[in-house]
Amino acid sequence: MTPEIPTRWRSILPHLPEPLPPDRTPPRSGDGTGELKINLPTELIRHSVSAREYWDIPAPVVERYRQYRPTPLWRARGFEEAVGARVPVYVKNEGVNISGSHKLNTALAQAYYYREAGVKELVTGTGAGQWGTAMAAACALFGLRCRVFMVESSLRRKPYRGVLMRMLGAEVHASPSGMTKVSAKEDPAAGNSLSLAIGEAVEYAAEHDRVAFCIGSGETYSILHQSVIGLEAEQQLAELEADIGAVVGCVGAGSNFGGIALPFHATARATGRTGPRLVAAESSSTPKLTRGVYAYDKTDATGSGPMEAMYTIGSDYRIPDAHTAGLRFHGAAKLISAMRHSGDVDAVAVSQADALDAGRLLARHESVLPAPESGHALAAAARIAASPDTTGGVLVCVSGHGYLDLGAYEHFLDGGVEDQSPPDEALARAVAGLHRVETRS
């Protein structure tokens, strides 16, 4: 039986042991600049702060979900054998829409709410291009203009991401673009910073009428919209009579991980049962959850938005170039960070070589080519499934497809992939000036 498409999102906020730490106003600079107000539709604010557990999905958004949902879930027996799994591995594939990733789940919701609020154009920053593509598609479907600042090194590697966004009607700029004040301060040769791309989008939106900045991963409302992944997975696994001991997703800021994992945690809390282990797989080159600090940090290069409590390696840390652009963000979402701090979320770091190898195995044995970012989750899931300590099956989210990432796989197959794990001293310098989050009793 085909599972029903969710018509309600499910929030984890009512099940947290304590409220999320409040945001802080950023310090103002000497030239009088500083805090910048980012106007959100009222409904998105409510999604971020209300203790309501279930939220009705607007009918126009459900209608668009029907174009690609429910997404496939299956037991990956060939992958299990290839990695020596001792327990079943179940794969949920979110790469089956035009954007190629889970990002469309919240892009559609945000485009709808911004349109209802009278916005005419949405502007955003993107790393690997999945979010920019999703936003371009959502804007096309809801009649909005779209502008995307994409990390230059990623756009250079994945030019067809830019082509697809342009096909969908978006204006695409390589970041640093030179068209914003924040980009003028940067070294154009660097081209690696998602924080900068987001900063450019924030600045551009603030200077133009009826234009709004939108973001796809770390915000609490975005993670709420992604709950459709886990809600569907719960239905699909129930039909398979599958017992799950661990849920795994990759983490840039945390939306696909939150989407697949948090509904299981909410169900466990609501029923008083012990839920599955929640495992966030991050890049070893951007190890905020495994080697970062829990502190207040800025979310973009302008430093104009609110300072958020997050696990971070420092927003000013120069993240090394890598094929997994979607994971190269300095901090984790404040919701995911709070759950990591409370012990409800575990984290592991995975090298891009291991991630690409896991992606190769899924393609060879399951005929699904995952994005390199998703390879981190697959590699972590393989380790867990092969461990003698694991009980119950492992559910893993393939957050996107890898058909626009074949250059990364070619580099891996040719033996050219190298990983740059941050030195301890460099991380210590990057977080030295941050205010740590005080632990509440």
UniProtKB/TrEMBL annotation:
Under the subunit heading, UniProt states:
Tetramer of two alpha and two beta chains.
Organism per entry: Streptomyces levis
Pathway membership, UniProt: Amino-acid biosynthesis; L-tryptophan biosynthesis; L-tryptophan from chorismate: step 5/5
What taxonomic lineage is listed for the species of origin?
A: Bacteria, Bacillati, Actinomycetota, Actinomycetes, Kitasatosporales
As for family, the record states:
Belongs to the TrpB family.
The cofactor required is: pyridoxal 5'-phosphate
Kindly state which keywords UniProt assigns to this record, in alphabetical order.
Answer: Amino-acid biosynthesis, Aromatic amino acid biosynthesis, Lyase, Pyridoxal phosphate, Tryptophan biosynthesis
Enzyme Commission number(s) of this protein:
4.2.1.20
- According to its UniProt record, which reaction does this protein catalyse? (1S,2R)-1-C-(indol-3-yl)glycerol 3-phosphate + L-serine = D-glyceraldehyde 3-phosphate + L-tryptophan + H2O
State the Gene3D superfamilies in the record. 3.40.50.1100
- Put simply, this protein is called tryptophan synthase
First-tier enzyme category under EC: lyase
* Protein's UniProt keywords contain Protease: no
Recorded hits in Pfam families, A to Z, give: PALP
Per the database record, which ranges form the Tryptophan synthase beta chain-like PALP domain? Answer: 67-399
